[in-house]
Amino acid sequence: MSVLIFVDQADGHIKKAAYEALSYGSKIAAQLGTTAAALVLGNVPSDLSALGKYGVQKVYTVNNDKLNHVDSQVYASVIAEATSTIGANVVVFSHNQTGKAVAARVAARLKAGLVSGACALPDTTNGFVVKKTVFSGKAFANINITSPIKVIALNPNSFHVTENGGVAEVTELAVTVPESKIQITNITKVLGEVPLTEADIVVSGGRGLKGPENWGMIEDLAHSLHAATACSRPVADAHWRPHHEHVGQTGYQIAPNLYIAIGISGAIQHLAGVNRSKTIVVINKDPEAPFFKAADYGIVGDAFEVVPKLTEEIKKLQA
Ligand code: FAD
Fold first, then answer.
1. Assessment of whether the complete model's pTM goes beyond 0.90
2. Where does 196-318 sit in CATH, by number?
3. Which of 217, 255, 301, 311 is most exposed, with the fewest beta carbons within 10 Å of its own?
């Protein structure tokens, strides 16, 4: 009996959500009186023993070129076999792009109950009850997982990273890596400075900006904060901004520490993609804009006046 945490990494860079999953999984192990281990796939970063800081005693690796790109079927096969080999009975993922593609497949292979979108430690006093967000974060559900193996996908930004462990033992795991049924012919990386789904701070613009020619001030503010840029759906639909910046129910769902919404009304479909942000700042000239209800801080004002002043002040603070 142990807890296995999948560590999401790309090009040797461990994603922020993976540290949250490690801290979360280690806490579950402590709660169950068992051990926690991490699983890292692909050409793995060096010095993985340092992951012990987040509470895992062991790090298992499957160092194989075929795992450098996420193929959900291949990943699911490898992770399910690793789970059985290790004898883990709780498997933790981040509920991010990779976790969403892989966790359910792993659960199906292991005949395990799955809770995706978990937002708190399970209550193990009477069963194994996991709290999760439902209806785009508008409500919570408590789900009791009754299967012997349990799979949990943790919402990004819902659990603090804690560093109170030591050095982990790193072991290469012998598992079968199946051939992929797909062939990647070309990869074009978006040349944004900060990937949207990984960004700590996101500066987002809506139709209130009037046109693509006005995005310079959004980019300036984003640069000053080392932030990623995002937009509402109509902005992407009108080709003012590329679709990979569109956030919301039908776009990316993000959970940065700070989300700055500029000239966005705050329609429910937009909020569905951003309401897990830790702090929301809204800049809108209409004091009745619905977004203010979801905001931690609000500025009622014309974006064309407020945003350049804000950027100027931030730059002064950084000088
Ligand atoms: P608007 O609603 O036009 O709002 C513009 C805002 O800018 C207003 O609040 C206005 O007061 C403010 N403003 C105007 N001028 C200024 C100024 N000078 N300074 C400051 N503020 C100013 N939308 C998404 O974003 N993401 C989705 O994923 C998504 N999915 C959808 C799915 C479905 C099935 C449907 C039906 C809709 C979806 N939508 C989505 C659309 C959504 O309902 C809204 O229409 C959209 O979010 C509105 O975008 P907006 O806030 O940029 O524009």
1. no
2. 3.40.50.1220
3. 301
The verdict on the CB of residue 243 being under 6 Å from ligand 1 is no
Whether ligand 1 lies within 6 angstroms of the CB of 208 is answered as: yes
Q: Where are the domains of the chain?
A: 2-172, 196-318
Q: How far is CA 84 from CA 1, 89, 213, 316, in A?
A: 11, 8, 55, 55
Equal CATH topology for 2-172 and 196-318 = yes
**Contact (Cβ atoms closer than 8 angstroms) between residue 303 and residue 221:** no
Digit-by-digit pLDDT tens for the chain (319 residues) are 799 999 999 888 898 899 999 999 999 999 999 999 999 999 887 889 999 999 999 999 999 999 999 999 999 999 999 999 999 999 999 999 899 999 999 999 999 999 999 999 999 999 999 999 998 778 999 999 999 999 999 998 889 999 988 999 999 999 999 999 999 898 887 666 677 888 999 999 999 999 999 999 999 999 999 999 999 999 999 999 999 999 999 999 898 999 999 999 999 999 999 998 999 999 999 999 999 999 999 999 999 999 999 999 999 998 8
Amino acid at 100: K
2-172 CATH:
3.40.50.620
Q: Count of CB atoms within 10 A of residue 137's CB?
A: 18
Q: Which atom of ligand 1 is nearest to the CA of 273?
A: 28
> Does residue 256's CB lie within 6 angstroms of at least one atom of ligand 1?
no
Residue 230 contacts residue 202 (beta carbons within 8 Å)? yes
CA quadruple 46, 51, 53, 56: dihedral, nearest 10: -150
Which residue's alpha carbon is nearest to atom 4 within ligand 1? 265
